[in-house]
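User: I'm putting together a teaching handout on how sequence relates to shape, and I'd like one worked example. Could you take Bacterial membrane protein yfho from Trichococcus pasteurii, show the sequence you're using, and then write out its predicted structure as tokens right after it?

Assistant: Happy to. First the sequence, then the structure tokens directly below it.
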Amino acid sequence: MFEENNASKKTAVYYTGLFLVMTALIYGYFMKEQKSFIWEGDGFSQHYLVFKDYLSMWRGFLSHPTEGFPFWDWHIGLGADVIASYGYYVIGDPFVYLGLLFPEGMTELAYHVLILVRVYVVGLAFLAFCRQMKIKTPGALFGSILYTFTFYVVLNVVRHPFFLLPMIIFPLLCLGMERILQGESNIAFILAVFFSAFSNFYFFYMLTVLVFIFAITRYFNLYGIKEWSRIVGYVWRALYSYLIGVLMAGILLAPVVWGFLQSSRQPGEFAAGLSFYPIEYYFGLFKNLLITERFLWTVFGFSACTVLVAPLLFLWRKKFGHITANLAVYAVILLLPAFGSIMNGFSGPYNRWTFAIPLFISAGSAILFNERFNLTRSELRAMGLSAVAFSSVPLMIADAGDVTPFRLAYPIPVAFAWLVWALLVWAYWLNQSGRLNSNAKTTLSVALLILAMANLVFNARDFYQPNGQNEVAALLDYGTVDETYNETFGGAEQLIKDPGIYRIGVTSKDTDVKNQMALLNRMGMNSYLSVTNGAVADFAKQLENNQFQLIQPVRGGFDDRRIANNLLGVKYILTEAGHAKYLPAGYEVVQRTGEEKGAFVVAQSEQAYPFAYAESVYLSTEEFEKYNPVEKEAFLSYGIVLEPSETDTAALTPFAGELAVKSVAFSLASSDPEKVQVSGGTITVKDGEGTIELRPNDPQELANAEVYVHLKGLHFDPKHQAEYGWTSIGYGARVSIDDRTKAVEQGDLLSFSSYFHREDMLFNMESKGDTTDSAPLSLQLNAAGTYKVDDIKIYAYPLDGQYAARVSEKQANAMAIETFTDEKISGTITQAKPSVLTTSIPYTSGWKAQVNGKEVGTVKVNYGFIGIPLPAGESEITLTYQTPLLRTGGILSISGVLLLFCNQRFWNKKRQASLPQ
């Protein structure tokens, strides 16, 4: 194990043994406690669910290949493209397909086994990198353990398993680039680029930046600045190799990038408008170096060897070369949000790219291990001084205990660093005294390896176990996840026997329902995915759905709004019996799962709009946007919204009616001026428990009406909690009436991936019935500070029989659907005059329409859905779906494969002649 030679199959065998030992020491606890790797958050809502659902699609396809693979799925949100929705998670991950080797009933086991397989391959990729970089065993073996069980890996085993892929890909990209710089074959680089581009476009962007940083630093390390002119040949070879890899991945990359560009995500302000990170972030760069804590996705938690490697980055600049240069560049990138934003695709300055740092830290540690018996006194002294410096970090934390509670996990890694240093000093002393024989070398080597492994095991267990950060408390028990999905509604969905085409909704209190409909095989509303149709988000934003989030544009029952639910074809709503008071008007409980506490109910409405119906009344987007959000929703019961420049509206009827939405006059007053003060458009909150009362001048205006509270032009200046450090700008707003409460959360700026400023907030307080003697509306803002509000409105939209008549007219004009599958809808419709077939199919260019056998361009209606212009008379309609750019991507992939053949057949044979001499 400790013989010096290049990393080989024998090294991989030793690594396998050490990996099994580490896995048993760290994850044996999970088996003992019967805990899974499935996080209650995204693990339950996204990662395992998508893994299971995608494997189910493949099993269905393999069982019935003639039916084709489904590229559209009605069970994802309101219906979505499978590649765009799942391409971020599973489609390009080669490990996912190994799940097909497991029986369907063992999918949960497959999920766990494949996570550990990914972790295992992380170390193999590092060994391959070391072999190419001439880092010999035993250092390569030592470094592989440090790399495999660094905190970035330990964290993502349970948080984001697909985040493990860049830990595999980055060493392979660097290996491939090194081969190009050494004048060797470029095939390894091409394949690594293909793997990266195919597996996940988000990390592919980061990896591209990182590998070219490596290429530049490594080039000058190899050839020096005097030979800079030679770089042109290498740049050309790297770029065309990169292009071939990208083209080969085109069949998946093209449609996935298309989906992302059409998604609901918003770019936001560059670097979130920050010039510098909060002071806690910079403190964390030192504090978190050796421990399992992170801030803004800056993930360190390295081995204690890092302390001893640090001074060698300067002392061994020539020996370390590219290692020092890359880490120096990374140090600069970590300092400013602008760099973090660039690395995160010009979005929020999250440092998810820090998966790259362990590669060079571990490589440096590997070199140090190989030099363990050759260290000089000055080098040991520098390492000792570094240990002294890092020993001050736990002392600083202890001194700042009121800000950062002190834990034993802070000094323990430093103690490991001192023990490693002591062994190296002992080796130096034995060497100087002539007593460093083979037995002593073996003993010291084993001791160093055991210390490093113990250090990493301690870190991992501190993160996972109850006597540390207790991450297992946020994980599901093993064997319960599938049952938990099935019990989402307590089996209430099985009570619905209706064979028609409709959607099933939830109430605003059911925000934990995210993607479960995909596994329950029901058409629903909600989705919680990193890539979600942007057209649906546009619809939700126009109606100011207060449940809106960037990756969940439709969630929580669309705030229980009656017309929005009807428009989306929600015929049934499932919810807990205790939440039935939040059902929209017109939805009546028709069934329940039992009488006991925790029972679920099925509510039904006869006013759900048809899936597709003819409509001839319209408003232009310009006119529609003049309405307030309640009026906008009310209009959608009269007609549709169109952009006149996109379709001929000459034969349609412009809307010229009146909307019955009333603005209700009211008075505003604090219920306790000691907690909340109101002055004009300013609300000063001293205690978040205080409330503001909104008392209508004429309560009768709220009777038999849907009641809304609208806050417009919100701006929050928080009360600073500390002299130094970040003060959150996040807060919650609650509006209550009688026994109903609605809440909206304004996220903090530092929640970059989900942050957007809610300038307006709309609360649907639902119908008050015919009583007018109930308590007033109350508003509560839960964070201390000053709130500027441009305007507060109370709207009332009367419930009357005219709405039912309008719905009946839509139902009478419904298309008779004859075929309804994932990728094809057909039917007939007859109307007296030209109109627009209005559907609740989320808008995408992938849907193509034929009317009476002729292709007709679709139009976007109501901001988010498919519409088809129809002539008067009878029309036979066929809608078919194909993922946009899938064929184009296929052509790109074929081109890439042909270029790969040319590369192997011609260019590689001439590479020596083409490279600068």
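A couple of points you could highlight for students: The chain has four domains: 9-33+87-471, 486-608, 613-653+804-881, 662-799. The longest strand covers residues 705-718.
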